[in-house]
Specification:
Keywords: Coiled coil, DNA-binding
Strand content: under 5%
Number of domains: 2
InterPro entries: Cro/C1-type_HTH, Lambda_DNA-bd_dom_sf
Radius of gyration: 31 Å
Distance between the termini: 97 Å
Shape: elongated
Organism: Flavobacterium soyae
Number of helices: 7
Structural class: mainly alpha
Protein name: Helix-turn-helix transcriptional regulator
CATH architecture of the largest domain: Orthogonal Bundle
Helix content: 55-70%
Largest sheet: none
Number of strands: 0
CATH class of the largest domain: Mainly Alpha
CATH superfamily of the largest domain: lambda repressor-like DNA-binding domains
Length: 139
């Protein structure tokens, strides 16, 4: 049975969200401080206590409402919307990164800044040498 056939089966929703998070029952159990068998029992339950549901939601990184309203159909629609947006992009690739600056300009900028820093360091060294020479002449 899927969440489509039993839309109010909280345990199956938790199980599916856990799987989508690529989390094993053992990991969820450890995070909650309970046994893996308890997680299995929870995932086979149609209902769950609000306090426990809140704890599970926190560990899974979702809200209680997200668990309650979860459905496979909504997930499919979400990913279809995402894929349509990607295919509509001007480059037609998943990685549609648009640089808001010219990297070469940034590189030249950093070289110019390094040059200014070097010149300031050189000037400071010259001043130090002049000061030391002045001290030597006074003695």
């Amino acid at each position: 049975m899927s969440t489509l056939s039993k839309p109010n089966h909280i345990g199956r929703k938790i199980s599916r969200i856990r799987e989508l998070r690529d989390m094993k029952q053992e990991a969820l159990a450890q995070a909650l401080g309970i046994s893996q068998q308890t997680i299995s029992a929870i995932e086979n339950s149609e209902t769950i206590e609000e306090d426990r549901l809140s704890e599970i939601a926190k560990v899974l990184g979702v809200t209680v409402e997200a668990i309650k309203s979860f459905s496979e159909e909504s997930m499919i629609n979400y990913f279809n919307t995402f894929n349509e947006a990607v295919s509509d992009s001007s480059f037609g690739s998943i990685h549609n990164n648009k640089c808001t600056f010219n990297p070469l300009d940034k590189l030249v900028e950093s070289f110019e800044e390094n040059k200014k820093l070097y010149e300031r360091l050189l000037q400071a060294e010259k001043e130090k040498i002049e000061y030391l020479e002045k001290l030597l002449k006074e003695k």
